[in-house]
Amino acid sequence: MIPEGWITAERVAVYPKLVLAIYGVMAVLWIGLSHNFIDPEGKPLGADFLAFYAASDLAVHDRLSDAYDVAHIAAAERAVVPASVTVFPWQYPPSFALLLAPLSLLPYTVALAIFMGLTLALYLWLMHAILPDRRALVAALAFTGTFTNALGGQNGFLSAALLGGGLMLLETRPVAAGVLIGFLTYKPHLGLLVPFILVAGGYWRSIAAAAATALLFGLAAWLIFGAESWEAFWSHLPVAGGYLREGALPWDKMASVFAAARQLGTNETTAGVLHGFVALAVAGLAIDAWRRRGALDLRVAIAVAATALLSPFIYDYDLVLLAIAIAILAADGLRSGWMPGVRTLLVIAWLAPLVGTGLARYAHLPLVPLVMLALFWACWRRLRLTTAAPLSRTRA
Prior knowledge:
Elements: H1 9-32, H2 49-60, H3 70-80, H4 94-100, H5 108-130, H6 134-142, H7 144-152, H8 156-168, H9 174-183, H10 194-201, H11 204-225, H12 227-246, H13 257-263, H14 268-292, H15 296-310, H16 322-336, H17 342-363, H18 368-385
Helix pairs in contact: 1-6, 2-3, 4-11, 5-8, 7-17, 8-9, 8-15, 9-11, 10-14, 11-12, 13-14, 14-15, 15-16, 15-18, 16-17, 16-18, 17-18
């Protein structure tokens, strides 16, 4: 058994504050060492948000279809940050541009601050709803996935809020839950499992609300940006798949089983088979868990952990999703007692988005998928034990 006495309530309260202080110092240094909106790594401040901003600018000028062309999106990005030499592809459906379009009317830095601030608030709202404790909120803010997402100017906060919020509301506000899930279609590969678990659980009102929201969301983008924007998106999908297969995007920034297998030297076919096996296994277990019912929060944790393992297109900033499973297991442990090893696993998962990426990049050890598998298994196992004898009432 793993000794876990070192994980105390005092340390859980203090260490995240120290991490937040480190984040603050790093942010000041990072911005201070930047020049002409280019950070010390040679990327524009906000990194991926530059593509969001440039695509939304093209959208308000009736040129969203051009955003799916590398030459056009590169030109649009250089118009915003002339010193940028890195191209950030736009690979989202037109519906996401519908959400972003108003931001292009603002200066880039203001738009970046508003987008990150609003989506961070949504993420923290969800974390507080799961575990209403000030220490938990600080830990959620200091979570290494939070830092990774903020540094990249990405949408991990929004994805976590929509998926986690939608699933958590299923039994109290089914229509609102469906609306949130419908908006998650802005990033469709994160919703692959959702229809199956909703059907398995019999959440028909939420299914109807999600379908209606997704349809109206896409239709609004079609009416505003034109059919050619959707045609360009569908035509771009094989290109996006090529980026994954060819390793055009860094393997070390990806957290999927497929990417880990490729980084370890396997060929595309072997990596695909391995990823498919893991994806089918966790999807099957997740669907069965939702069919059997049980505590909603634990089923949500299972669904979120499975979602992170399902798609090969999972990046380090998407690992904000892990905060949902971490918070739910922590809340369950405080409420009902801890399974052996879970507190250590939560610490490892809390560190994984940043430390795991570093290990993959510098030591060529892509361990994040193993952490995600362990987190999924802990969630699934805890749900199965909820009908067994109570656990020891040890506290953090």
